[in-house]
Amino acid sequence: MRPLKLTISAFGPYAGTCVLDMDSLGTEGLYLITGDTGAGKTTIFDAICFALYGEASGSNRSKPDFFRSKYADPETPTFVELECIRRGEKYTIRRNPEYERPQKYRKNEMTTQKAEVTLWMPDGKVVPKARVKDMVMEIMGVDKSQFCAIAMIAQGDFLKLLLADTKE
């Protein structure tokens, strides 16, 4: 899977909407994401992992209140949208966590925005919500833990990856 575009809105430390055009990085090789501590590097992986699997990439960031940015305007929706290509076919998945937002008609009152997910297939059809998890597994060919081990090699974990047996 090659990510094409990642849109993050009111997610983690990102208060507004941030669009990462990964297609402009090219089609060859690996991508290295670098930056200062606290710059939001891990949040990019969390957003991709959340879009695909509904969870952050790390267990210490798995609480639901992590996803909604505490810096976001109450009106800003929280969601992640990932456009990616796999075997020449383009998929788009958009997911939002459950979070509190202002009511539409009584702006001074809050309501719970339920968690939602939408997966668009290459032919434009929408996968039923109950089938998204299985379809993501089918498309990706790996589960969340395998994806995280492949896609994000955290500092100090490279040797662990090299020494892992085939089953892992």
What structural keywords apply?
168 residues; alpha+beta; five-stranded antiparallel β-sheet; two-stranded antiparallel sheet; 7 strands
Can you describe this structure?
The structure is a single chain. By secondary structure, the chain is of the alpha+beta class. It is built from five helices and seven strands; from the N terminus they run ββααβββββααα. The protein has a five-stranded antiparallel sheet, with helices on one face. A two-stranded antiparallel sheet has the order 5-6.
Describe how the helices and strands are arranged.
Layout: E1 2-11, E2 14-21, H1 41-53, H2 64-67, E3 79-86, E4 89-96, E5 99-102, E6 110-113, E7 116-120, H3 132-140, H4 144-151, H5 158-163
Antiparallel strand pairs: 1-2, 1-3, 3-4, 4-7, 5-6
Helix pairs in contact: 1-4
